[in-house]
Inverse folding.
């Protein structure tokens, strides 16, 4: 079966797709870059094989465009990016190819992403355990954790400031327990917390 393009409607606004109208009355949305790269024009006839190839090209372009938007907004690992792409409706194959494409362009680097996550956790005043959780949540490969955590600065001052604010001038036992639990939730180890508490009390 052959279908002929009877019209091409441009995107109504940035970020939307063009609409291609065929002679059988059907319509199909394609990315503007697909229309341009595939050289679509009114009167162009497409065989079934050519139409399927056009759909595949648009699907691959869609995954790449979405992948670029995701990494522009947040630090993500390769695994997390694949997950997000498929969750958004991209096929596993297109997601895999988009991730490989970004990696080949050196725009996706799990080791660098891990270091950025560590820096973000430190800026928020988190301890190493909470940052490890962040690395896990972002699906950073475990073999990259230790190297990234070596970039974590000494968080003693941040922990001291956090506990001082929680404790106040004359903390009772209840306040002390609450402050300790809060520090544990922020990823600090009990040994770190105890050492800072002793320093504050002295």
């Amino acid at each position: 079966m052959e279908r002929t393009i009877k019209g091409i409607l441009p995107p109504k606004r940035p970020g939307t797709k063009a609409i291609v109208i065929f002679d059988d009355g059907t319509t199909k949305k394609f990315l503007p870059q697909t229309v341009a790269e595939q050289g679509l024009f009114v009167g162009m006839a497409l065989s079934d094989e050519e139409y399927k190839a056009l759909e595949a090209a648009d699907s691959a372009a869609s995954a790449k465009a979405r992948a670029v938007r995701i990494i522009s907004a947040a630090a993500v690992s390769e695994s997390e990016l694949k997950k997000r792409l498929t969750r958004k409706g991209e096929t596993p194959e297109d997601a895999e190819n988009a991730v490989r494409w970004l990696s080949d362009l050196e725009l996706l680097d799990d080791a660098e992403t891990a270091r950025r996550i560590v820096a973000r956790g430190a800026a928020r005043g988190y301890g190493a355990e909470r940052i490890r959780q962040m690395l896990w949540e972002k699906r950073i490969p475990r073999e990259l954790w230790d190297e990234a955590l070596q970039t974590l600065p000494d968080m003693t001052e941040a922990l001291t400031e956090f506990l001082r604010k929680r404790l106040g001038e004359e903390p009772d036992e209840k306040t002390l327990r609450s402050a300790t639990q809060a520090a544990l939730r922020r990823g600090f180890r009990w040994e770190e917390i105890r050492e800072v508490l002793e320093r504050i009390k002295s």
User: Anything to note?
Assistant: Residues 156-201 form one domain. The chain has ten helices and four strands. The beta strands are 2-9, 18-22, 27-30, 45-47. Residues 48-73 form the longest helix (26 residues).
